[in-house]
Design goal:
It is a single chain. The chain has one domain. Helix content is about 25%, strand content about 30%. It contains 10 helices and 16 strands. α1 (about 20-30) crosses α2.
Length: about 300
């Protein structure tokens, strides 16, 4: 059972997990782990499944999915969907999710379940939900020297936000501030589930799954490392921005079918996650936050 604090409703919810029985078997049994490690986590499987989700043959899944998971379709733009993936990347109606406008407040860059840490470094471990992460591992450096280690250096001792998206969620992700893209690269890897059940069995998933890394120079929060993590059955991570410069709330991209995760790292002392997120993280609880709502505060001079 996954319990999540719903910030907007000020209550604890029990998460309804898509494919819960399968995830438990895949990561909780020897035969399931063998299948996950050697077949299902391989990119070819997710790519093949993604092609099916792109096809018209997947349309029959849409209405049962909306019904079974009580998707609030009134919050989304009206559209005719030709495939399940077209439904999966649905957009919110204009105005449904306003972004915080205070320059010193970072808005949620995804509608997701957040974990928040004020300082993360190579000497720290994060056992919440099985996480053991460092800036170097997240950014693809591991224990090796070289360019990736240099990329990770500004984020040693800085804050970290982890946003987990469920298959039932809005699957587009956004820029949290005005700024410019400094660099972007891909880190190859497997495509394991990012469900907390899987993370309990494999604590390295967020640092070994396939990732896309963007280094962002922002106006109010300094340098950010913005990392999209691929996952089981995620056919593709699509970047939709086209220019080097970006603005607060602008769409950055989207995930095609599957649960996934966005990680944001910051420089030491540049900003601080909100207390309610950090406090719930410290007791092992994720916080569901709506897109655009404040999640952190700048420590930089105005």
């Amino acid at each position: 059972m996954i319990r999540v604090w719903n910030r907007a409703e000020n209550r604890e919810d029990v998460e309804q997990v898509y494919g819960e029985g399968l995830v438990n078997w895949l990561y909780g049994s020897p035969s399931g782990r063998h299948l996950a490690d050697h077949v299902l986590s391989r990119p070819f499987f997710s790519a093949a499944y993604g092609r099916y989700q792109d096809s018209r043959f997947s349309r029959h899944k849409i209405l049962p999915f909306i019904r079974d998971f009580a998707i609030p379709m009134a919050e989304y733009e009206s559209a005719e969907y030709g495939s399940f993936n077209e439904f999966f990347i649905r957009k919110f109606r204009p105005g449904a999710r306003p972004f915080a406008t205070d320059p010193g407040r970072m808005p949620a860059f995804a509608e997701a379940r957040y974990l928040a840490y004020e300082a993360v470094s190579s000497g720290s471990t994060y056992p919440v939900k099985g996480l053991r992460l460092t800036p170097a591992a997240i950014l693809g450096a591991g224990e090796d020297a070289g360019p990736a280690r240099e990329t990770a250096a500004p984020f040693e001792g800085g804050p970290m936000l982890i946003a987990r998206l469920c298959p039932t969620d809005y699957h587009r992700f956004h820029f949290p501030d005005d700024g410019e893209v400094v660099n972007q690269y891909r880190v190859g890897g497997a495509l394991h589930s990012v469900n907390p059940v899987a993370l309990r069995y494999r604590e390295d998933i967020l640092a070994t799954n396939e990732r896309q890394v963007s280094l962002l120079r922002t106006r109010n929060f300094g340098l950010l490392a913005y990392v999209e993590v691929g996952a089981l059955c995620v056919g593709r991570i699509v970047q939709t921005y086209s220019a080097k410069d970006f603005s607060r709330g602008q769409e950055k991209g989207y995930f095609l079918f599957g649960a996934s995760t966005v990680i944001v790292l910051g420089e030491r002392g540049a900003w601080r996650p909100d207390d309610d997120l950090s406090q719930r993280t410290s007791v092992g609880c994720e916080t569901l936050v709506r897109l655009g709502q404040p999640i952190a505060g700048s420590r930089r001079p105005a």
